[in-house]
Glutamate dehydrogenase (Metasolibacillus meyeri), 456 residues
Amino acid sequence: MTDVMTNEQVAKEYIDDVFKKLKQKYAFELEFLQAVEEIFLSLVPVFAQNPEYIHHNILARIVEPDRIISFRVAWQDDNNNVQVNRGYRVQFNNVLGPYKGGIRFHPTVNESIMKFLAFEQILKNALTGQPIGGAKGGSDFNPKGKSDAEIMRFCQAFMTELYHYIGPDRDVPAGDIGVGAREIGYMWGQYKRIRGQFEQGVLTGKKPGYGGSLGRKEATGYGLVYFVSEMLHDANLSFINKTVVVSGSGNVAIYAIEKAQHFGAKVVACSDSNGYIYDPNGLDLKAVKEIKEVKGARISTYLNYHPEATYFEDCSKIWTVPCDIALPCATQNEINGDAARTLVENGVKLVAEGANMPSDLEAINIFLDAGILFGPAKAANAGGVAVSALEMAQNSSRNSWTFNEVDAKLHDIMKAIFTESKEAAEKYGYPNNLVVGSNIAGFTKVANGMIAEGVY
């Protein structure tokens, strides 16, 4: 007599088998495998209750990108020397809408990082409720130390290769690390010259007045804090008089600091890749903005404004600063197990991710096991891509909304993401686990769309 497997056992066996094959196939793509594993761990109850997902082999299909585009980017520096970089665009899934995701210029860019970011983008974009699929792109080009003319020439060369594969109803890139409104403008200008058409909606993150949306610069940071506000409210807490630490000092960090301060928090630390500053009196945001947005200087310059503050080398040590709320807004895997344990020992009550995958799996498990409120990136930092989708809508309608209109829509989207994630977690037996909830809420939207489309 043979044992009959339960639905949960069947689901777990299926998920384990798909992941085993994926690890064998992409053994060296560690970031991609980490992102996939984190999501797979959440999906056993979903597949147990929805066996049609197994029948349609959704998991094996969703982890393979529709296509990966890799190309050479040759450009000329200011000394008339020809430089060569590698460019990527990973078009992962367009079931819910045209591919959508940022472009990153950073020396660490490789295919694994592009795939992990694009894979995360699928579910993040689904959570926003906007009609957008998941993609990501970039290059190992390092903009630091480059002149404006060099950056312009690189952006033009990059777009000369990329333009073949994008379009307002096909794939709509945006900015990411190393790519802001300036770089988007250079790429948009080159696209327009090549195409000979005014397809304004092909890129988002443009400057306001030039097809860009008001509120886009602030969107990821503001959206993060709106999401955290919902988490706090659900736990009968608030930002008022809470001590906050924010890693990073780019757009996400700066506008997370701004909105957290607006909600009554005291933000005491932020960082850049060299180190971090600690100001027990609360950060002077005006000084941080001037240092980073105007002067483009290192965060250590803050001491010129506030000598009573302290600067520490080694940005990773920022998580030793005691706080009630930690907002990692710098880069992937910046919080490891040791940093997570330190945060918990120092009394952190809530951690929410402003960057993409800033906490590794060990850190996430430490937070969840300790009962810390945890907001995962795909839900908490979805504000940026949400407003990018709103920019697409404005471009399509040849319209421009006010800052307050965009901000109100962003606030509503972040509240909806929290509610959907919380309800999904409760439905599948993981109450208050927003990691599981956001994974399930995003995944089921995409999976249902894939079933509706049929096998192709």
